[in-house]
Amino acid sequence: MESDGITLKLRDVRAASGLSLSRVAEMTGVSKAMLGQIERGESSPTIATLWKIAKGFQLPLSALIGTSALRDPSDASVFRTVTFPGSLQVKIVFPFDPVLGAETFHVELSANQSHNSPAHAAGVTEEVFVLNGTLEVLRDGEWVPLNAGEGLRFSADLPHGYRAGAQGAAFLNMHHYAQPAELANQESILP
Amino acid sequence: MESDGITLKLRDVRAASGLSLSRVAEMTGVSKAMLGQIERGESSPTIATLWKIAKGFQLPLSALIGTSALRDPSDASVFRTVTFPGSLQVKIVFPFDPVLGAETFHVELSANQSHNSPAHAAGVTEEVFVLNGTLEVLRDGEWVPLNAGEGLRFSADLPHGYRAGAQGAAFLNMHHYAQPAELANQESILP
DNA sequence: TTACCTTGTGCGTTATAACGTACATATGAT
DNA sequence: ATCATATGTACGTTATAACGCACAAGGTAA
After folding, report:
1. For residue B172, how far is the Cα from the chain centroid?
2. Does any CB of chain A come closer than 8 Å to the CB of residue B70?
3. Domain A10-63, CATH 1.10.260.40 — does that match?
4. Are B51 and A45 in contact (CB under 8 A)?
5. Which residues from 47-86 of A have any strand C atom under 7 Å from their CB?
6. Tens of pLDDT along B105-163?
7. What is the CATH number of domain B82-176?
8. Which residue of A has its CA nearest to B175?
9. From the candidates A1, A30, A77, which should be mutated to test the interface with B, based on the most B CB atoms within 10 A?
């Protein structure tokens, strides 16, 4: 009933598409009676039916939910520079651990500098966390902009790349390798 | 009943906060029985109750909905960090991923603030990377000092703790879990 | 040990989401 | 005008979300 703060955009979406309730009922598998009640706020749908609706429209769930707020600035931190000659400045933060299947690097790019990486082995996942500056990550063929304090996780089995903004960028780069199950229960190599 | 494939991250969020079902029930107004059923997928919540939960955690709704991110085309899985309150300031940088068995938090401690953590489950490894300030980490009964740009990796199945220096501290905190095989193959939610 | 508290889960009841069908109005065609 | 088809809403039933309470397992203290 009273869904207090939630604004559902179903009515807008449907109006934009110009489809009738009956038609939407067909393509979503949700009864038109329910669709009507949801539209006029008489019923609060479960996420399951909300998902059916989104799927029917081939929209992400967020397109139906009144997206409340995007999130905040995270202040950048000052990192003590570790100078390193080469095209990139790379420092190993956490060495590769076979039990975890993970390693972490600290990478610095100067202003407008870019770096491309070929596809890694399947099952490799990368995470990027921007420490300061602005960074763009090439993922799935498109450049995703990131600010300090923001992170991006993506599958690394496609070609990908990084390029810094006008004031350069520093970021952490985590690599996760798929863990063969038989490796999972060795004991840790940690101190 | 069948909540088909929707993955809700309530369990992860609650685990990250370290709160009990009863406690979450208090701060959200949702009965702990229902919270439990939602966590183990026995019930598909309405968006109204999902909203109550998100509001209780002071999180955006998207933080609870299974970021269908697994190859949803339009969804660039850029994780804006989401904060939730408590004794310390914690933001989710990379949400828990059952395939990786890893999650990353951004933690801030005010000046001289400390935080102790009980032993986690065996097989959990933590990594700490100091963004700014000075931090001491209690590991194996001794306090290890860390400066900005330094990292520490340790096994979390012993009691451990953090305390900031005079000017406070901010750090990334990665958790690596040993991978239970049954978590790895949840079905896709996509058509 | 005996209490005592807290954890999470199971059970029975109530509230309501979701369904199918029927209804009322609207538009268009004959 | 009547008929026909489509719109969205109202009704009655079923499935299930959500509740409060009670229970069993684990931990702590006296």
Report:
1. 12
2. no
3. yes
4. no
5. 48-49
6. 888 888 887 777 665 544 567 888 998 899 988 876 678 888 888 888 877 656 678 88
7. 2.60.120.10
8. A100
9. A77
Can you name the CATH fold of A89-183? Jelly Rolls (2.60.120)
User: Strand C: which bases are under 7 Å from protein Cβ?
Assistant: 6-12, 16-22
**Cα distance from B56 to chain A (closest Cα, Å)?**
13
Average pLDDT value over all residues in chain B: 69
- Interval B15-35: pLDDT, tens: 766 778 888 898 888 998 999
B44 chain-A contacts, CB cut-off 8 A: 46-48
Measure the CA angle with vertex B92, ends B61 and A157; round to 5°: 100
Q: Dig out the tokens for B84 from the structure.
A: 């939730």
Domain with CATH 1.10.260.40 in chain A: 10-63
Size of interface A-B (CB pairs under 8 A): 160
Residues of chain B within CATH 2.60.120.10 domain(s) are 82-176
d(CA A103, CA A80): 20
Q: Which of A26-30, A86-90, B25-29, B123-127 has the lowest mean pLDDT?
A: A86-90
Superfamily holding B10-66? lambda repressor-like DNA-binding domains (1.10.260.40)
Overall residue count recorded for chain A in this entry: 191
